[in-house]
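#struct-pred

JT: dropping the chains for the assembly here, can someone run the whole complex?
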Amino acid sequence: MKILAIESAATAASVAILDGDTCIADMTIQFKKTHSQTILPMIDQICKITETEPESIDAVAVSVGPGSFTGLRIGVATGKGIALAYDRPMIEVSTLLAMAANIPAGSECLICPVMDARRAHVYTGVYEYDDEGDLQEVLPESLLSYEELADSLNSLAEEGKPVIMLGDGLSALESKAGDARRMKDIMQELVAGELILAPENMNYQRAASVAVVAAKMAKEGKLVSSDEVKPDYLRPSQAERMRKSGVVGEE
Amino acid sequence: MKDINILAIESSCDETAAAVVRNGREVLSNVINTQIDIHTLYGGVVPEIASRKHIENINPVIRKALKDANMTWDDIDAIGITYGPGLVGALLVGVAEAKALAWALKKPLVPVHHIEGHISANYIADKTLEPPFAALVVSGGHTHLVEVKDYGSYEIIGRTRDDAAGEAFDKVARAVGLGYPGGPKIDKLSKEGNPDAITFPVAHVNGSAYDFSFSGIKSAVLNYLNGAQMKNEEVNKADLVASFQKAVVSALVDHSMMLVKEKGYKKLAIAGGVSANSALRAACEEACKEAGVEFFCPPLGLCTDNAAMIGAAAYYEYVNGTRGAWDLNAIPNLKLGER
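RK: done, full complex below.
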């Protein structure tokens, strides 16, 4: 099975092709250009170099969020278009789960990907590998403040497991009373146990990880029609939030 | 000559639309998924909600357009796409989808200007219409007076300095409690009112005779309402909106006829959502008749946003050799006649 994977949830634009068990292409760009300008040219490049015909792609995997609303939609729409051309199924992969998969199996750690959600909040979840080498969710995907995340990690890590954190959320700047600090420094203080920060090469969203998670999901039959695929924002639009709270307003 | 079938996609505002058009003139399918019910809850289009709906609806809409045309992808020669102007998040969904489809199918991608699409709705409505002609494009987001010199060749002669005509309709409708969208509601209520009951000023823009300004008319309506409220007077809403509508329509018609006469055009075409307004259509038709100018307007269904008009425009761009690259971006403030 040949899977094309697309990741555009945050600042990294990333595409990969998994052919059977082999990741034959894996390309990530973090540059000032928008995903609209990078994702499809990148797919075109990796397909040309690996002599992959669009028609030979069996399934299209997309990182569906959480993340940047617009970024997610560019990746998802690109995936939908390619899937629609030859009526191929799609695989909806959680961005956070794919990030956790950057960390190799066998790590006796709680894996905590964090994505900057602004205002001292992160999109996050906590995962660990089971004995079969599969990632299990121990804290569901949610939008948490730094303090809420630290509280969750402290109660989860009671058995003394170290926590490994990764993601762009780590370098988010939080200003308080004129004092700007990085999220990772705040977390070092708040988390009671050992906190390991992932190295740069594992720190970002990668389509290769999306592809690996997608291959497992495909084996479990989690293939869906391109008609049904949509981003999982974890956060309603501002207008919906205001309307729910009784203030009708526009974005 | 071989027939050229274009599948076109439009997602610049709150309609997710796809269509198949043959040779720029014949509509083989025209699918529109409108989000108007959701946006009505908010009193106007909410960009983030529009973008969310586009991504949910786009594949079924495209699939249906192909099916309604009784075609497979093998029958399609090119993919046409609106890449601006419009809401950037909304545009990006259609642009990413269209690029991916064209790439995977190895078909040419033809980027289209949204206003060019509106004007091209007239090519579908009247198969005999050919440039050159003068065009008035009026919608919720645009008010443009355009010289259509040739297929794909446009020059904007007049534009609004503040509100778009449709925007003024929406704001006045909200002020008198008619709700959203304002255009059709004002059109309907105006039929019961006296358009000469109140005189609202028709603004002129100093130094540029072709330009429009509608914020003054809108403010005059709001002031009139406030004044009546302070004096505890009952306002005849039908008279009020009919008078407002007359002021807007006469500005649009006067400027259009000025262009037609000064530049010697024999044809005037109108386009865009506000061109569905019955008073505007009637006034344009009458003025054209008087001046001996041929008048063109699309059927009501092709006035508001749709993909058939994008398919018509894309055909002429396709013939002219316009192609989009894989790094094509959405351009929210794209100017007509620029790339």
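JT: nice. The longest strand of chain A covers residues 135-145. The two ends of chain A are 43 Å apart (CA to CA).
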